[in-house]
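Researcher: Quick sanity check before group meeting.
Model: Go ahead. Protein one:
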Amino acid sequence: MMFELNPERICNIIQLAREFHAKESVVIPEMPNNPGDDWALQVLADHRADPVYRELQYALADMEPDQQAQLLALAWLGRDDYALAEWDAALQTAVENLASSSPEQIIAIPYIADYLEEGLRLHGYSCQA
């Protein structure tokens, strides 16, 4: 499968994620042992009134499930969980593991903006003007 996301859209998500995660009150825990835990919803519940969080959540929720899976796979690629040559495997795993609460699942990833930016770079794109 090919990389089919619009890099400009991802750069917007990266910017929103940076703004949201830069706030002092945002504390994201380490990944849980059980992927089924609802820790992301619990952590992010306190931020529902935050306009940056709402804009980021909306930008993610506005994506189709296959686009959300690509974004998750892109983050894993940028985190070095997968190599670029393993893109298809990363994408397949993302499709299989995407939760119904995928926007919150994606927002709750520590350093998500950095991972997405590195994943974009590995695919040959940049958010630099």
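Researcher: Fine. The other one?
Model: Protein two, sequence then structure:
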Amino acid sequence: MTANPTAPPPVDSPPPDAEEKESAGSSIAFTATLILLVGLALFGRRIFAGAFTDDGIRTWATMFVGVTVQAMPFLVLGVLLSAALTAFIPASFFAKALPKHPALAVPVASASGVILPGCECASVPVSAALMNRGVTPAAALAFLLSAPAINPVVLASTAVAFPGQPKVVVARAVTSLGVSMVLGWLFLATGKGASWLRMPKNRHAEGAGKFDVFRSSMLHDFLHAGGFLVIGAAAAATLNVVVPRSWLDHVAGNLLLSVLILGLLAVLLAICSEADAFVAASLTQFSLTARLAFMVVGPIVDVKLIALQTGTFGPKFAVRFAPATFVVAILASLLVGWWLL
């Protein structure tokens, strides 16, 4: 029997699991890098005893380790709960639970973030799944903003980071909840049926088992959030050690400028919401209002989220939604900070 001359040669067909192997290799490399960074922070003073003679370096190492170690348990808990939410609670549940009227669905979706934990890494695919199951986009976007900002893990971590200051926890919850509702209603008023919102696709394969979804979501969120936590802790330590105290005092003394600076810093650092309160607490030069802006902006608009939103909902959506989110978050932080802090 002769071979079919039109059949493509076997070498041209990549193995079906090539992409999975490449992804797994990247995950292993990222995990190894994360472990190395944390290990150096924990044991570097013993390994490189001669290099840690300067007070500034010792202060940097102490602050970096303190922020990372304090935040890591909340990060792990948040990732586990977020993965469980994604895997085991069907999106149809939300479609049935929300009011039919879009204007009423927005505050209900925002408030559901209080009892349904989820980090910002997971909030984008979860909100995409809600839209695919018939939830009005305005309500899905309100949930996207509230879930990573006011869930129990985030509020508990904020209380631990700011001991004896319950007003900070209340201010964060009130501000983040208000921002999510305002932006949901704003989208309802301006973006209903908008051509610049691209309806998303499910990131998990059709027919994937719940435990497979749980495992992949947990791995994805932990690798991304853990890396950004390490970067954020290092940046916070560097800011406190390297930047001249007089410059920080000058910036911190101007309320509007300090709020804008920490808001922009939150966008650039992209720290997971379960850990950002510890970084904010370390920025003692700044007022509570400025640090509130850091905690409100970070979970709802940062470079990571902008990239995720661009890939999921399209670039036309991201260039409108991200700036609007930042402006509303800054104004709300100023208002609530003046009122409560």
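Researcher: One line on it for the slide.
Model: The chain has one domain: 54-196+209-340.
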